[in-house]
Amino acid sequence: MAQSRSTERNGNHTSISVFVLLGLSDDKELQLLLFPVFLTLYLMTLVWNLGLIILIRIDSHLHTPMYFFLSFLSFIDICYSSSVSPRMLSDFLKDENTISFIACATQHFVGAWMALAECCLLAAMAYDRYIAIGSPLQYSAIMAPDLCWKMVAAAYGSGFLSSLIQTASCFHLDYCGPNVIHHFLCDLPQVIALSCSNPFISQMVLFLVSTIVGFGSLLFILLSYGFIVSSILKISLLKHSAKAFNTCASHLAAVTLYYGTALSVYMNPSTSHSMKQNKVLSVFYVVFIPMLNPLIYSLRNKEIKEALKRVIKRVTHLLQRDNI
């Protein structure tokens, strides 16, 4: 068990300096087998998301609000995965998985910031799709670059402030007893449960932030899609209706995947079985979703495929010219 030392933090006595993360499994052989798998998945997440950001930046045909938001979504996925995956990978190779009090708070802060910002950004992308379908003639005027930058700043700012409030309320508590977290990351509900002071305020802050930002964004997305469906139904030609809905399919898939997994993780009661189930779902939430998002938006997207072909053609032409 990790050793603890006493510190004084803003007048509150805190006796725990480290937490112990139990990780995905107690089986060291299994962890060694999982290491190359998760390393590959993490590298794929970095390559695909970074590649999508670069492609959107260098191809002028993709300089539209939809791809502008998508590039920032990819950046969020990189940061969110990087807040957990490198430590999880290093823990696979360790006998004792400990994390300092400060590192635990930092991991949660960055992870929650990105997760909450993604909720807001998905809502902004739903609004963008509503304007594109409901008011196509005014789309360029409404979704001007200035508004897009403000919406991105609002998404990141809301995530930052919400995460800061959550993290401060949780890690300001006294921790003087058990320091074992039954997870591979600093899961806030489990951290709060280890506190030896009254956690009511922290639990209420966690609930309110999750409700206002998480469910508030989901409600906005659902309302946007309600208006989108209404606009699509007004389109008389079936071909045009299908094309309009196709522009929303990738975003709708990403929202379903993101919120479906998140609700499955945090709406389950805290039982021994659900904790094991939550670890598996959290792996999907932390590792797979950031990797899948760029694929969801790229595989059936003709504009991204065409942009990739143009970039490859340009690079090939430059290489051939240099060889001449």
Any overview of this molecule?
The chain has 324 residues and is mainly α. It has one domain: Rhodopsin 7-helix transmembrane proteins (Rhopdopsin 7-helix transmembrane proteins), CATH 1.20.1070. It contains eleven helices and five strands, in the order E-E-E-H-H-H-E-H-H-H-E-H-H-H-H-H. Strand 1 (7-9) and strand 2 (12-14) form a beta hairpin. The longest helix is centred in the middle third of the chain and has 34 residues, at 101-134. It is globular, with a radius of gyration of 22 Å. The chain starts with 6 loop residues before the first strand and ends with a helix.
Task: Give me some keywords for this one.
cell membrane; single chain
Task: Please sum up the structure shown.
The protein has 324 residues and is mainly α. The protein is 74% helix and 5% strand.
Number of alpha- plus pi-helical segments = 11
> Order of helices and strands, N to C?
EEEHHHEHHHEHHHHH
Summed over residues and divided by their number, the pLDDT gives a mean of 87
User: How can the largest sheet be summarized?
Assistant: 3 strands, mixed
- Bin the helical content: over 70%
Radius of gyration: 22 Å
Q: Structural class, from secondary structure content?
A: mainly alpha
Return the CATH class.
Mainly Alpha
Assess the beta-strand content as a share of residues. under 5%
Alpha carbon gap, first and last residue:
65 Å
Shape: globular
Give the CATH topology: Rhopdopsin 7-helix transmembrane proteins
User: Looking at this structure, what is the CATH superfamily?
Assistant: Rhodopsin 7-helix transmembrane proteins
Supply the number of structural domains: 1
Membrane topology: Multi-pass membrane protein
GO cellular component, one term: plasma membrane
Pfam families: 7tm_4
Family: Belongs to the G-protein coupled receptor 1 family.
